[in-house]
Amino acid sequence: MMRSPIERQRHLFEHELWAHDRVIASIESVPDPSRHDPDFHWAVDRMAHILIARLVWLARLKSEDAPTDLFPHLESSEGLRELAERVRDGWRGFLGELDDRALSRTVSYQSSEGQAFDTPVEDILDHIYTHGFYHRGQIARAVSAAGGERAVQDYIFFARAEANSG
């Protein structure tokens, strides 16, 4: 099936939501005695980083100030689920309003270091997806080290499940 460029972006976002759900479940699979281990806390912090970055990029794309309530030190997966819902709701709304032409629009923003950039929307979206892939792989290692179950999160598993559900 051929997807338009914006349909492809929406599809990749749905994969990301699917993967986030599985990664959070894998973090929750860490046994209680290991939840004091540095690997567990690192996994929670890294997942929070992915979600927070998503919300910061959403604010940049909408020419809004980045939310200031995003940087708590999360001690549990409950906070991760709340952040994941916020990401899902905000991004579904944003992507639902875009069309193919909007992907080539250039966005002006400042990095967290204060440096100014101008970047096409499509490049920002591609960055966000690859950023998540990278860190979710790191989380899998940390979850395993803490005694939890690694999440199956590869795109092909998502695509197969989607094909079999329709």
Question: What can you tell me about this protein's structure?
Answer:
The chain is 63% helix and 6% strand. The protein is built from five helices and two strands, in the order αααββαα. It has a two-stranded antiparallel ribbon. Helix 2 packs parallel to helix 3 and helix 2 (38-61) runs antiparallel to helix 4. It starts with a helix and ends with a helix. The relative contact order is 0.20. The model has no long low-confidence stretch (mean pLDDT 93).
Question: Topology of this structure?
Answer:
Elements: H1 5-28, H2 38-61, H3 77-97, E1 106-110, E2 116-120, H4 121-145, H5 155-165
Antiparallel strand pairs: 1-2
Helix pairs in contact: 1-2, 1-3, 1-4, 2-3, 2-4
Distance between the termini: 13 Å
Q: Could you give the order of the helices and strands?
A: HHHEEHH
What would you report as the Rg, rounded to the nearest angstrom? 17 Å
**Low-confidence segments:** none
Average pLDDT confidence is 93
Query: What's the helical proportion of residues?
Result: 55-70%
What share of residues are in beta strands? Answer: 5-15%
- Biggest sheet: strand arrangement: 1-2
**Can you count the helices?**
5
How many E strands?
2
